Amino acid sequence: MKSVWLMIPLLCTLLAVGCATQNPVSESMVAQTEARIDQAKSLNADRYAPVALRDAEKHYQSAERAMSEENYDQARQLLEKAMADAELAVATSHAKKSQQAANELEENLRALEAEVQ
């Protein structure tokens, strides 16, 4: 009988853990991810980093679906992936735009050199 009494607290703990609800995803996390995706779009990531932008949007949409189903842990993970993809799209867009500007400067320099000779 003593072992039954010892198992009651354990069963209560397991029941409490099993019934615990997940905390909703913070609005700031959603807003930050959405803002980063918008930033990527404004930098023409659809041209410079289309795969990263597509992945960011896909993960964001999946996160929205998970939130509507109240699967908040999965939603958080998907938002983190969306943020990482969006940041990659932003960084890639910046890098490719910088490279493009450097190429144009180099081309202009060559044209000036040709004029001088």
TrEMBL record:
Domain DUF4398 residues, every copy: 30-104
Origin: domain of life: Bacteria
InterPro entries for the chain: DUF4398
Keyword terms of this UniProt record: Coiled coil, Signal
Pfam families, A to Z: DUF4398
Protein name (record): DUF4398 domain-containing protein
Coiled-coil regions listed: 53-115
Extent of the signal sequence: 1-22
